Fold:
Amino acid sequence: MNINYKKSLKLITLLITSLLIATVSATVYSQMFLNATVGVGGLTLKWMAGTDAEITPTIVSSTCTLSGLEGIAGQTSMYNDTARIKNEGLTPVTFNITVQTCTGSIANLTSIIIKLYNVSDSTLQGTLTVWENSAKGNPLTGLQIESGSTWRLRWEITWSEQAVTSDSVDVELVLDVSS
Structure:
C-alpha cells in the first residue's frame, strides 16, 4: 500500500485547524430558570341585576347586557335601576368607564346619560355622557367604589321629535378596573 504523505499531511492539518476553530469559537451558555404557578383570580367588581321590572339584564361573568331600554320620541325616559355594580373585594376598587361605541339611529338620538348612585345612601357617584350634541361622550375616570358597596345605574334616554319606533342604538361601555 502506497501512502501519499503529502496529501495525508494536508488532510491532518485541515482536520486539526477545523478542530481548533471549532474549539475557539464555541460559546458557553449560562442558564437561568423561572417557574410560576398561574391560577384564576376572582373578579372583585361584579354586575348585579337592578330593580327596574321592564329591564332584563343578562349577566355572564364580566359582561352585562341590558334589554328593554326604550325612550319616547321628544321626551326623556328614565330607568332608575337598570343594573348594579358591586365591590365584593376587601379593598376599594378604582375604575374608569369608557363609551366604546354608540351606533345605529344616532341622527334621531338627542342624548343618553348614565348616572351612578350609591345604593345605600343614593349619593351621586358620577355622570357618564354616552351620547349628546351628536357626539360620543368622554370617559368617566377615577371612580372609586368602597369594599362591600353597590352602585346602581340610572339611564336617561332622550330621542328627538323625529324618532320613530324602528329607531334604535347599540351602546357598548367598557369598565377598566385598576388592579
